[in-house]
Amino acid sequence: MCGIQAVLPFQHAVSAALTLAKTDYQMKTTRIMNKIIIYLSAVLLLCSCGSARHYAAFQYDNGDDYVSEGLYRIVDQKGRIGYADETGKTVIRPRFAFGYPFEGGKAKVTDSGKRKEVAGSGGEHWYWESDDWYYIDKQGNRCENQDTDKDKTHP
After folding, report:
1. Annotated domain spans of the chain
2. Whose CB among 59, 99, 103, 140 lies 3.0–4.6 Å from 109's, allowing a Cys bridge?
3. How many beta carbons lie within 10 A of that of residue 133, not counting itself?
4. How far apart are CA 92 and CA 71, in angstroms?
């Protein structure tokens, strides 16, 4: 009896130590898993922000650009103009200094020029001045032999 009574306290002590160790192990594992989840979430968020192309809608008349022939103008961080469809999918990546909405299956665009303020508008109204206008189709291809009105601005 003496031997069993001596073993029981030891058994309880070992059992308690194992329970504490198991609980401590579970807590450490939970902390590690939480850190991994937070790290992976941050990585996924950063990757999705960097890899996806997010462009802003071109601002026209105090709001987003209007849809014309299924496309609207978009702008990248450098101010270049491109075109997206009604679902927001980029159809023509921003690469133009300026571009007008599509009319008759084509859009008048330029790779150069300057934004000019309309006199007397206090900066509220402006136009784009360029010597190098040309037309593109809805795939972004340059249209050959198109009359660009021979003017420096869009009508």
Report:
1. 1-52, 56-136
2. 99
3. 23
4. 10
For the entire predicted model, the pTM comes to 0.60
Structure tokens at 35: 């850190």
DSSP three-state, residue 73: strand
Q: In this predicted model, which residue has the larger pLDDT, 58 or 22?
A: 58
Tokens of 26: 């579970």
Number of H helices, E strands in the chain: 1, 11
Contact status, residue 82 vs residue 71, Cβ threshold 8 Å: no
pLDDT of residue 123: 81
Kindly list the distances between the CA atom of residue 18 and the CA atoms of 4, 8, 47, 85, 91, in Å, as whole numbers in the listed order. Answer: 20, 15, 42, 63, 63
What percentage of the chain has pLDDT greater than the value 70?
65
Write the DSSP symbol of residue 103. B
For the cut 70, the answer to whether the pLDDT of residue 21 exceeds it is no
